[in-house]
């Protein structure tokens, strides 16, 4: 087999997950069933059950795929000043979120999973882990910023500033979806630029 080539079984799993994504975004997450996913994928229900033994297993696989596509690892030039690094990290994160487009299916599905996670500890744990990993991306720049401007950030803790950066990264897309993108990416970035970058 050619290195990197996907095996038929892996391709079949991806086909099923994509079908589950289509069903979940079209009919809402709580309406997803193995039968509907099988029909969308043009497969038998038995084959779907072969790859995912239960509906819960399919939901968790869909969530894992969603988190992997939404929470990417951003990198910036480490030689940039801390404020510029933080701005660039947030810019990349928000650019990715806003590029999903108005009424983004992925964003809306993520928030559906978020609500479901309030009563499902497995979903809650997986979302929390993804957010924590995304949060840690900001830590080096946050640490350097606090060290470079101790007087300006007197009393500000590393975790406190990290929480604020995460709130911006996660909260802006949520507000965008809820307001039908009334506030543009350009407006959000202009506000961030004014807050983070010195004149």
Q: What fraction of the residues are assigned to beta strands by DSSP? A: under 5%
Main sheet summary: none
- Please, what is the average pLDDT? 89
Give the termini distance in whole angstroms. 56 Å
Number of discrete domains: 2
The helix tally amounts to: 10
Approximately how much helix is present in the residues? 55-70%
Number of strands: 0
Low-confidence stretches: 1-5
Tell me the series of helices and strands, N- to C-terminal.
HHHHHHHHHH
Query: What is the structural class?
Result: mainly alpha
Radius of gyration: 20 Å
So what's the overall shape? elongated
GO molecular function: DNA-binding transcription factor activity; transcription cis-regulatory region binding
Domain HTH tetR-type: 10-70
Protein name: TetR family transcriptional regulator
Keywords: DNA-binding, Repressor, Transcription, Transcription regulation
